[in-house]
Amino acid sequence: MAHLALRRVEKVYPTHPPLHALRQVDLDIERGEFVAVVGPSGSGKTTLLSLMGLLDVPTMGEVWIDGINTAKLSEARRSRLRSDQIGFVFQQFFLLPALTALENVATGMLYQGMKPAVRRRKAREALDLVGLANRATHRPGELSGGEQQRVAIARAIAGDPVILFADEPTGALDQASGRMVMDCLRGVHRAGATVVVITHDQGLAAQFHRQIHMLDGAVVQDDRVGPGDITPPVGLPVVTMATAPVIPVTSVMPVPPVTPVEPAEPVLEPEPEPQVEVEVLPEPAAPEPEPGPGPEPAAVQTVVAEPVVAEPAAAQTEVVQPVALDTAVVEPVAPEPAPEPEPEPVPAPVPVTAVPAPAAPSPVAARPLPRPRIPWTPPPAPGSRTAPAEPGSLLDSLAARLSFLRASEDEEANQ
Fold first, then answer.
1. Burial 263-284 (b: 16+ CB within 10 A, else e)
2. Is residue 304 part of a domain?
3. For 296, 310, 369, 383, which has the most beta carbons within 10 A of its beta carbon?
4. Could you report the per-residue pLDDT of 92-126, keeping only the tens digit for each?
């Protein structure tokens, strides 16, 4: 079986409606290939990388790595397999800004169970492979974009992966930095790793030995265009430097000597004679003869002829009788004048009666209130038990009551 194999792989995201990212993908990648997966945005390239790199699980189908069906592995074993055999390079660098380049590379091997000294040694070797040994103590903020991407590549290869996946590794870089990154990827491939790069750049994909074209989640074309073609057609011998026939030098036909041809003398053309322009002047006009005394003119006899008036011929005139025509006189109709708008009635004025203001009250001199007069009721005669009359006021009642009590006491005392 191939080093990396996909069998009828599908990936469906549970949206409304469902999104089919991959459709029945069958793919084999051999060990040591240099592969580019090409396609427009949305064709399923990154989803394919996630499934091949064990970052995600397919909805249907199987992913095999070194003869292991990863669909039957637990999450812990999948993580272990991914840590030991797979390296990742993304378009974003994902470097920790507080750590140096050496520390960022060493952090990538943290889950492989290596000792700190071993991780630092491998990190220095990886930085040396990508040409950044002199920048090991610099932090990401002190590095250029191309240098940060090379640090990310060093982090991916420091753990000696068997497969290296790169998702748009040159997408955010200029041309010079992109060429340096491609040189690093070629060096990793020459070291024996399988390199799979995701890109939409046709010019970048042309530098790989195999190109897998994707469209709408399916593989539509698979081309082997270079040394990556490790499976030659059946029946054709494989020609190497050891088996290639040696062509003797004597079998080459001699080349006859070439006789130099002398250049012909140039033919000189006669120079044209200069043309002289001649200005033609007009001949002078002959002078007019001066008038001299000539012979006297002969007498001329004048004859006056009388005009002959011709009689006018009688003109024949035809009298035309007028024909009566039935004509109707149409009197112009004057347009009716537009009715004048009736004036709006003006409300009659409301008579306003002036109400005189109330006169201010005249000041009244304060007079003392009259003191109430309490009528006096004589006490009852001794021996009389008749109750006094009802008083007219409270004081009268009290006085009468008091008099009654005193009379009663005096009567009891006398008895």
1. eeeeeeeeeeeeeeeeeeeeee
2. no
3. 383
4. 889 999 999 999 999 989 888 889 999 999 999 99
Which of the four pLDDT bands, split at 50, 70 and 90, describes residue 236? very low
State the CATH number of the domain containing residue 100: 3.40.50.300
Q: Is residue 203 part of a domain?
A: yes
Q: What's the pLDDT tens digit per position in 270-286?
A: 555 555 555 555 555 55
Reported residue count of the chain is 415
Report the distance separating Cα 137 and Cα 102, nearest Å: 6
According to DSSP, the residues that pair with 213 across neighbouring strands are 38, 221
Is the C-alpha dihedral spanning 180, 182, 185, 186 positive or negative? negative
CA distance 188 to 125: 13
pTM above 0.90, yes or no: no
DSSP, res 249? G
Domain that holds residue 195: 32-54+70-224
379 in Cβ contact with 403 (< 8 Å): yes
Q: What's the total number of domains in the chain?
A: 1
Tokens of 207: 């530098």
Q: What count of other Cβ atoms lies within 10 Å of the Cβ of residue 248?
A: 6
User: Cβ contacts of residue 139 below 8 Å, gap of 6+?
Assistant: 97, 98, 99, 100, 101
Q: Please check whether residue 96 lies inside any domain of the structure.
A: yes
| Contact between 9 and 63 (Cβ < 8 Å) | yes
Q: Could you tell me the strand order of the sheet in which 68-69 lies?
A: 19-29, 4-13, 60-65, 68-69
Task: Provide the CB-side half-sphere exposure for 76 (13 A, CA).
Answer: 0
Task: Tell whether 166 is covered by a domain.
Answer: yes
